[in-house]
Amino acid sequence: MEERTRSTAGAAVPLELGALYEAYADMIYRLALVRTRNRADAEDVLQDVFFRCLRRQPEFKDEEHQKAWLITAAIRSSSSLLTRADRRHGVGAEALDYLSTEDDTDDTVYTAVLGLPEKYRTAVHLFYYEGYSVEEIGRMTDTKPSTVKSHLHRAREALRQVLKEDVE
């Protein structure tokens, strides 16, 4: 891969796709998997994001800008993929297996999150799993912060209902 350095505001930010892939591929794949609920589609999104990066060669201000650009590209790519009628899939056990961590003893929460509508899954994933603020999620998803808050609130309510039913 070609390594280029661009300077913005006195700071040089290396543009090396191999390093970007190593740093962010897992995060992008997880986000795509949460949105698409299918491993093959998530792999397509991952590939598309890095192809876009290679093709466009965006100028990054800093590492946080790199991460935000890649997340936004993943959201747009997965949205595009999901709008195609032949790509709509149900929640697969494969998504649950990948998203679970070693110390998770109960997959109920993951199953419930994957059962949410896409806009809620995205907000929950970016807020709870990636640690972004409501304002940052709004910028990445091109929605108002108040809308993101509503998505999170509705997702929590839906999760509360689903998890309450599972306990009873």
Low-confidence stretches: 1-13, 89-94, 101-105
Would you report the number of β strands?
2
- Tell me, briefly, the overall form: globular
Biggest sheet architecture: 2 strands, antiparallel
How many helices?
Answer: 8
- The end-to-end span amounts to 55 Å
What does this structure look like?
This protein is mainly alpha-helical and 168 residues long. It has one domain: Butyryl-CoA Dehydrogenase, subunit A, domain 3. It has a two-stranded antiparallel sheet. Strand 1 and strand 2 form a beta hairpin. The N terminus is likely disordered.
Q: What's the gist of this structure?
A:
This protein has a single domain, classed as PhyR, sigma-like (SL) domain (Butyryl-CoA Dehydrogenase, subunit A, domain 3), CATH 1.20.140. Helices cover 69% and strands 6% of the residues.
Strands, helices and their partners?
Layout: E1 4-8, E2 11-15, H1 17-36, H2 39-56, H3 63-83, H4 93-99, H5 108-114, H6 118-129, H7 134-141, H8 145-167
Antiparallel strand pairs: 1-2
Helix pairs in contact: 1-2, 1-3, 1-6, 2-3, 5-8, 6-8, 7-8
Descriptors:
168 residues, mainly alpha, two-stranded antiparallel sheet, 6% strand, globular
